[in-house]
Specification:
Mean pLDDT: 87
Number of strands: 45
CATH class of one domain: Alpha Beta
Radius of gyration: 31 Å
Oligomer: single chain
Number of helices: 14
Main location: membrane
Protein name: ACR073Cp
Membrane topology: Single-pass type II membrane protein
Subcellular location: Vacuole membrane
Keywords: Aminopeptidase, Glycoprotein, Hydrolase, Membrane, Protease, Serine protease, Signal-anchor, Transmembrane, Transmembrane helix, Vacuole
Helix content: 10-25%
CATH superfamily of one domain: Alpha/Beta hydrolase fold, catalytic domain
Length: 872
């Protein structure tokens, strides 16, 4: 799954809900800038002056005839005086009423309509609104670069990289900010009289050629079909590779391009254009070298399922056979204008307990043009990772359907040698995560590495840490790191000269990401690269020899990027980010963003730990959380502020991370005068196995408990209106919203917004679901409890909102329809429904992404204004 909302520049999602990047993951689709529709909510403004008041209230005076009877004149004058006095009294009363209503009342009262003034009442600065967010006023800029490989020895790292500026791809140097060698120029090009738009350019490792992508068509989340051309950097000409290609990958020696067309794998020789066909059985149900839907979504997080050997002598690839996988039809209504019938697309989608695709690992010898097949047997239901650990040896990880037993196999390119399995490991509770965590470490006698080896992530006392296996056939590793913190994602770089392993970890805090290193031969002597005395979330990218580092700071302050020399002998005069190495220069400082922020008044997230009470064993449940307070927040206002909870909560996920973001959540805080709260409860990641694995076999239980416990804490705050507490989530977050409302039954959460929710785990894909729930036949009670099923409890919630796209290929619209049927049968009517034709999981077809967020904000405004309260 994947977090889906796009508003967290960094959780949806979707976040990679693992279900939405989000999120960040939340992260992922961003709020679209298709329209600058600004939410406006009517709010009267009174302006009064002496002139306007008199003009409104003054009555005309009459000229009286001098011959009128004196008595009549006196009577008229008396009446006129009384009239004037009355009008003055009315004016005074009206003015007093307006004055009193302009002063905040510090007593309990019904919720006033949220203000739509674009200016904060005290500072005079602007409030965050949709216009600013959709106009990307708060979106940080991040530079992309491609480090060169193969131009020099890894022991003599030149620090060269390819970077795009405007419409030019150029070779740059870390040593000279002004050095530029143009490789490719232009946003368009022409070949044989046909014009094309450049959509991507990837330089060959030796920079002799470039691979140009054009005519791209989106497939699934991570994949596209496109036309590719080889571009000669010296001759400045184009040569076609093919059309409608699913994959196109350079070989390490720059001699060939491996590509997939019509689900068959081919090798294109750059020198002479010769094409070698590797497979010939590709079809609608057999995929060679590319992922099918479930492998792309849940295993590889990529459409590419091929791996070149280090020198390009071999290609390993998957053959994925979907013949036994059941089809799921999705109707598309708007693909052709004025179409009378919908287009129905059938996707091979394995649901829980149904057949999975059958995957085999293949190795192709390029010179001999010979293919060998590796069959791991029935236990290899899922092959989750493939890494070359030498020129003639492949490491492959595979596991059973429920991700309880992990096997590491070594496969030789010599088909006469059987594969071996040096590691067979059980989880002992919980599950094995799917990820790309292995890094090859080549042999080097000079640097004390007598054998090839690899670094991997293993569990050490319930926390993810680094381990070194050498030789690759070793079953017992050297544990490199340990402690009550976790390595994130695996090793990020290895210095072949110093034997230092670089990695990102939560060593300081579970919601921060700092860069560290440890030496292969000095285990647990962990050294800092980034400054842990300051809060920070960092991303990194290393040059080929691991000497140079692109350091990306993502928050909590304004993001920046800079290049660092880790082997410089000079001292670093720059105080930002790193405490190891020397800053060379900045690639991005986001100065425009800094200026934009000065115009607005808002509160950054306040990070905290919430004590949610005791678990079943009497242990305190401490959850990471943050809150965003509205502008001009006043804690003295009794029973005043609504609380807008946002949740994702999927296994191993994380929303509460100290990244910079000014996005939809700040819009909610500013425009609804609401407190925004995010809580990572049990089941989420980076706090160790006990916190994460408690949800095994029982999704939706502990996650909902923790959201309710947090809502209870906030309902007890003096300034919170406990009748105005809501929960919003997308994808797994939508599921969690419904399970929380179901369990809470209106006690603390009065409103809920569920977008693209799972409602029954039997209907979701097998690879994701069975990792946490096992198969339905082996856990029937767990599946029954995890389903959104107690509609009588949902009926006790004042109101909830459901939204879904009919073209969702991840969490099918079927989930919402099944729930709607349950609600209908039970006569439950306290909900609203919004359906988006043809929209996928991210809900972004035909202006839908604008509408979905407008609807969330408007609907929450109605809820907080009492529109859904039964007058009885």
């Amino acid at each position: 799954m994947v977090p889906s909302p796009a508003f967290v520049d960094g959780p949806a999602g979707c976040f990679k809900c693992r279900f939405c990047e989000s999120s960040r993951r939340y992260q992922e689709p961003a709020i679209r800038s298709l329209q600058h529709n600004r939410l406006t909510m009517a709010a009267q403004q009174y302006r009064y002056s002496d002139h306007s008041m008199s003009s409104t209230l003054k009555l005309p005076e009459e000229d009286y005839d001098e011959l009128e009877d004196e008595c009549k004149r006196q009577n008229r004058q008396l009446a006129l005086n009384f009239t004037r006095i009355g009008l003055v009294v009315v004016a005074l009363v009206w003015g007093t009423f307006l004055l009193l209503n302009s002063i905040p009342v510090l007593e309990e009262s019904s919720r006033a309509q949220p203000t739509t003034s674009s200016r904060a009442t005290r500072s005079g600065k602007l409030k965050v609104d949709f216009e600013a967010v959709r106009g990307q006023k708060f979106k940080p800029r991040f530079q992309q670069l491609q480090w060169t490989h193969g131009l020099s020895s890894v022991h003599d790292d030149k620090g060269l990289f390819v970077k795009k500026e405007d419409d030019v791809y150029s070779l740059k140097s870390v040593f000279d900010e002004n050095y530029t060698r143009e490789l490719f120029r232009g946003n368009t090009f022409e070949h044989e009289g046909v014009g094309y738009v450049v959509e991507g350019f990837v330089a060959a490792p030796d920079l002799s050629y470039g691979l140009v992508r054009t005519n791209s068509t989106k497939n699934w989340r991570h994949s596209t079909f496109a036309t590719y051309f080889v571009y000669s950097i010296e001759k400045r000409d184009f040569h076609p590779v093919g059309q409608k290609l699913a994959v196109a990958e350079w070989s390490p020696d720059s001699q060939r391009i491996a590509y997939v067309k019509d689900n068959d794998l081919y090798l294109h020789s750059v020198a002479d254009g010769k094409v070698s066909r590797v497979t010939s059985d590709g079809s609608a149900t057999i995929f060679n070298g590319r992922s099918d839907w479930v492998y792309e979504e849940e295993v590889l997080s990529s459409g590419v399922a091929l791996w070149w050997s280090p020198t390009g002598k071999y290609v390993a690839y998957f053959k994925i056979n979907e013949e036994q996988v059941h089809e799921f039809p999705i109707a598309y209504y708007l693909q052709e204008a004025d179409a009378l019938y919908p287009e129905v697309r059938k996707i091979k989608y394995p649901k829980s307990g149904t057949p999975n695709p059958i995957v085999t690992l293949n190795i192709f010898d390029v010179a001999a043009e010979k293919n060998s097949v590796v069959n791991f047997g029935d236990n290899a239901t899922l092959i989750t990772e493939v890494v070359w650990v030498g020129e003639n040896q492949v490491l492959a990880k595979y596991m059973d359907r429920s991700a309880q037993v992990l096997t590491v196999a070594l496969v030789s390119t010599d088909e006469n040698k059987p594969f071996t399995t040096p590691r067979v490991e059980s989880t002992n509770g919980g599950w094995w995560d799917v990820g790309q965590t292995v890094m090859y470490v080549p042999r080097n006698d000079t640097n004390d590495r007598a054998n090839d080896g690899y670094i991997d992530v293993v569990s050490v006392n319930g926390y993810n840490h680094l381990a070194y296996y050498s030789p690759p056939s070793a079953s017992t590793p050297t544990i490199l790191t340990s402690g009550a913190w976790e390595v994130v994602g695996g090793p990020v770089a290895f210095d072949l000269d110093t034997n230092d392993v670089f990695f990102i970890a939560t060593r300081k805090s579970s919601n921060e990401r700092h860069l560290y290193y440890v030496n292969l031969f000095q285990p647990n002597d962990v050294q800092e690269v980034t400054d842990t005395s300051k809060e920070g979330v960092y991303d990194v990218s290393f040059s080929e020899g691991s000497r140079f580092l692109l350091l990306t700071y993502r928050g909590p302050g304004v993001p920046y990027q800079k290049l660092v020399d880790l082997k410089s002998l000079g001292s670093d005069s720059d105080s930002n980010g790193n405490v190891f190495g020397e800053t060379l220069y900045y690639l991005e400082e986001n100065n425009a963003l800094k200026e934009n922020l000065k115009e607005y008044s808002f509160n950054y997230p306040k990070f905290q730990e919430l004590n949610l009470g005791d678990d079943s064993e009497g242990q305190k449940v401490i959850a990471n959380s943050y809150e965003i307070l509205p502008p001009d927040f006043d804690s003295n206002l009794r029973n005043h502020y609504p609380v807008f909870f946002f949740a994702y909560g999927g296994p191993g996920s994380q929303l509460v991370k100290k990244e910079f973001a000014v996005s939809f959540l700040q819009v909610v805080a500013a425009q609804l005068d609401a407190i925004v709260v995010v809580v990572d409860g049990r089941g989420t990641g980076f706090k160790g196995k006990p916190f994460r694995a408690v949800v095994t076999g029982d999704l939706g239980h502990y996650e909902a408990e923790d959201q309710i416990a947090a809502a209870k804490l906030y309902s007890e705050k003096y300034y919170v209106n406990k009748e105005r507490i809501s929960l919003f989530g997308w994808s797994y977050g939508g599921y969690l919203t419904l399970k929380t409302l179901e369990r809470d039954a209106g006690r603390y959460f009065k409103y809920g917004i569920a977008v693209a929710p799972v409602t029954d785990w039997r209907l979701y894909d097998s690879v994701y679901t069975e990792r946490y729930m096992s198969e339905p036949l082996s856990n029937p009670r767990g599946y029954a409890d995890a389903k959104v099923h107690n509609v009588s409890a949902l009926a006790k919630v004042p109101r909830f909102l459901l939204m879904h796209g009919t073209g969702d290929d991840n969490v099918h619209f079927q989930h919402t329809l099944v729930l709607l049927d349950q609600l209908n049968l039970a006569g439950v009517e306290n909900y609203d429904l919004l359906v988006f034709p043809d929209s996928r999981h991210s809900i972004d077809i035909h202006n839908a992404n604008v509408i979905v967020y407008d609807k969330i904000l408007n609907w929450a405004n109605q809820a907080y204004s009492g529109a859904f309260v039964d007058p009885k």
